[in-house]
Amino acid sequence: MSKINRALVSVSKKDGLLGFAKGLTEMGVEILSTGGTAGLLKDNGIPVIHVSDYTGFPEIMDGRVKTLHPLIHGGILGKRDNEKHLEEMKIHGIKPIDMVVVNLYPFEETVSKGGVTLDEAIENIDIGGPSMLRSSAKNFHDVAVVVDPDDYEEILTEMKENDGLISYDTKMKLSVKAFKHTARYDSLISKFLEERIEGEGFPSILNLQFEKITDLRYGENPHQKASFYENIGFNTGTLSKAKQLHGKELSYNNILDLNAALEIVREFDETAAVIVKHTNPCGVATGDTPVSAYRKARETDPLSAFGGIIGFNRALDEETAKEVAATFIEAIIAPDYDTPALTLLKEKKNIRLLKLKDLTKKAQREYDLRSVSGGLLLQEKDSITLNEDNLKVVTNRQPAEKEWASMRFAWKVAKHIKSNAIVYAAEGETIGIGAGQMSRVDSVKLAAMKANKPLHGTVMASDAFFPFRDSVDEAAKAGVTAIIQPGGSVKDEEVIASANEHNIAMVFTGIRHFRH
Q1: Could you tell me the residue range of the domain that residue 263 belongs to?
Q2: What is the maximal distance between C-alpha atoms in the chain?
Q3: What are the CB-based long-range contacts (under 8 Å, 24+) for 251-257?
Q4: Is 288 inside any structural domain?
């Protein structure tokens, strides 16, 4: 353990600083400081030596240069158990600095504001701060480095209990936190500048910064450990920003299903509800009210709806809450809940209730990340929407207006179902869903088998083209009158001929929505 006799304090975030500095002073610690931090301490009666007085060199270049000086970095980096270092420190009049309390210019806050200029961003890139942090973190054996105001109280307590000493273990933990702090900071800067250079392209080196929200009880299975992390810099409309209002802690699988529900339900401008099981929707519907949308969604597959995750894009009222509470549900995500609805749902001890105020606002540019053995796959999110100008009717019969509306709805749903994906739908509700089959015709058959309502007069959406006419023949047996699909198969002529034989209208989108 080493005693703290001299501390350099220079912080951007000043939360808790006065109490911490006062505590250091009471234990006889000499405080060096700069700029606004020094002014704040002095104004509050805390003894402080300005760094420029300490070094004998003024702050210059609008404060760009103030701590980059041998008296500062020599005092931080000098090893106390190295006779050569100590002799050089003595020769050059370098005094040991035993603690560095620094947090950095608010670069992240600056660039997150709309319309920030490159010059504004650059002026908020800290130079002296990271240099001092890295120096002190490197020499953690002799120097305590403090970047997090949440650590102030614990550090003061340890010093008071040990006559101003801080243990090796504590200093090592603080060092790790400091290196994480500077790594995060540098990553934010490089990401911001790289986007200015590369625009919409993928970076040559992918720097990812995720901050842990919480540890989870376990992963997909009880033998797997898991945690939930937030993507730093994405703050709007993301699941990581949802507030849990009630219920047991979320599981790994809950979070996956809640995310699936969120992504599906915000496809719709009209009032919508979705029920998700194992990341696939087992029912999706729109309606005049949340309760009507939910009832129709549940009717798609009432058996699978049991134990599902529900997403709404409108606030829940009491009537909807009563309907939901009638079935066992794992979790709900919605923009809000009125007081009667919340009171009623909280009577269910285990149901997890999540509120995401900005649910309908899609996040900034995001990527899909998938780990593979020894690497990572990166792609843009599948956020493309139908271009009405590119829709092509390829059959003799034109779709009726009601069929057009149903196809647009079914297409939005098919985008979020595991391939091979097939959706039967009619008038804003799913009738049958086939997901994750190895052959497309099996998905067509499965969707018909799962249907809880008559299929006659429904439309069908397929996430990818039909390799053969058999899927269309099966759809015709079920009573489908219109089909929307990407097109592009070498058998397109055969598929179109089948549709014409059955008097089915068929539309090509030119867009594929594989979901693996």
Answers
A1: 244-355
A2: 98
A3: 251/216, 251/217, 251/218, 252/216, 252/218, 252/219, 252/220, 252/224, 252/226, 252/228, 253/220, 253/278, 254/309, 254/330, 254/331, 254/352, 255/216, 255/228, 257/308, 257/309, 257/330, 257/331
A4: yes
- Answer yes or no: is 233 within a domain: no
Catalytically active residues are 138, 278
Q: In sequence order, which ranges of 432-491 are alpha helices (DSSP H)?
A: 440-450, 470-478
In a domain, 295, yes or no: yes
Entry field: residues in the chain = 516
CA 293/CA 275 separation, integer angstroms: 11
Q: Give per-residue burial for 373-409: e unless 16+ CB within 10 Å, then b.
A: eeeeeeeeeeeeebeeeebeebbebebeeebbbbbbb
Please indicate, yes or no, whether residues 193 and 78 belong to a single structural domain of this protein.
yes
Start-to-end Cα distance in the chain: 54
Closest by CA position to 330, among listed 282, 289, 397, 378: 282
Dihedral (Cα; 395, 397, 398, 399), 10-degree rounding: -100
Q: What is the pLDDT of residues 166-193, one digit of tens each?
A: 999 999 999 999 998 888 878 877 777 7
Query: pLDDT tens-digit profile of 421-447?
Result: 999 999 999 999 999 999 999 999 999
CA nearest neighbour of 465 among 362, 359, 394, 381: 394
Residue 461 and residue 347 share a domain: no
> Where does a domain end: 331, 355, 379?
355
Residue 330 dihedral angles phi and psi, to the nearest 5°: -75, -45
Domain count, the chain: 3
37-46, 71-80, 198-207, 484-493, range with the lowest pLDDT:
198-207
* H helical segments located in 329-439: 339-345, 401-414
Percent of the chain surpassing pLDDT 90 = 65
Helix (H, G, I), strand (E, B) or coil at 145: strand
Cβ neighbours around 350 below 10 Å, total: 11
Q: 210: buried, middle or exposed (CB in 10 Å: 19+, 13-18, 0-12)?
A: middle
406 and 504 part of one domain: yes
Residue 161: Cβ within 10 Å count = 9
Question: Is residue 330 located within the same domain as residue 394?
Answer: no
The DSSP annotation for 120-143 comes to HHHHT--SHHHHHHHHHHHTTTT-
CA atoms within 13 A on the CB side of 78: 23
Say yes or no: 181 and 256 in one domain: no
The answer to whether residue 365 scores a pLDDT higher than 70 is no
